[in-house]
What does this fold into?
Amino acid sequence: MLILGIDTSCDDTSASVVEDGSRILSNIVSGQADIHVKYGGIVPELASRQHIEMITPVVDEALKTAGISLGDLGAIAVCYAPGLIGSLLVGCSFAKAVSYAKNIPLVAVNHLEGHLLSPFLESPQPQFPFISLVVSGGHTSLYLAESFGRYTELGRTRDDAAGEAYDKVSKLLGLGYPGGPVIDRLAAEGDPKAVDFPRAYLPESLDFSFSGLKTAVLNYVRKNQQCTPVLSPASGVSFRIEDVAASFQEAVVDVLVRKTQSAAQQMGISRIAIAGGVAANCGLRTRMKKMGDGQGIEVFLPAQMLCTDNAAMIAVAGYHMAARCAFSGPDLNPRAHLPL
It folds into this structure.
């Protein structure tokens, strides 16, 4: 079965054709970083307008690259939640229109399920049950995945998502947007033990909290800054930005790895998969793999291009929903918030 996946949940317009839920025939992503970088974050209205401009050419390119036509599709899978409501409206409206005009079955996919199932786009694939850490700019959650469509949330962030903390710290340090890649790069050149930033382990649960860490970085910068109240790379400072980046990342990664390990141990499961934009972080990938090797836990890490938002993961989830005949109709509406 060929599935056309469509994702417009945030600021990337993406379309993908996936065969039988595992083989990527095309995966086209049109990013908007150049549009939003001057604002230090995503502007929802600008994002939705750009989706309107790009959705048709991106879908056309996905079909052309896959060498198929709309008539070859078994279903269209569209991300309908959670995300920016204006952005989601574009993808859902487009998918419903094509579904109606061409009489192609429509599947509504939760963005979080797409991330969770992204490891199935590569080999080897994780076997159920496994622990999934979904960590991105908008979400940081742990799930017990027992089968396709059957997931139990074990823990979630109580405040900032890990990726959100990266972006805010990057803005604080004058490093721009998005923050994850630049902090990851600078962290490789810094000393992770230079600053002893706090870790919110929350030992009574598998929840996360990163707001205190963000505040600790802010207080450290203000205390050690020599010049202006807002730090930029040109400001006079009494510390190396590389060391702050490395110490911040060490604190985030430490909590993510420990919590995921704890979830696996509590559930008695020896398989872990990580997904979401922050799963592309080199520091996290290295530490998670090292932990797995030391604890006898099999760790599944999708390719970095499959960690960030993409339509291939939506197509995978859509394939398994279509296999269960979990189709949607023309009354499908997007939702800004929706738990998995």
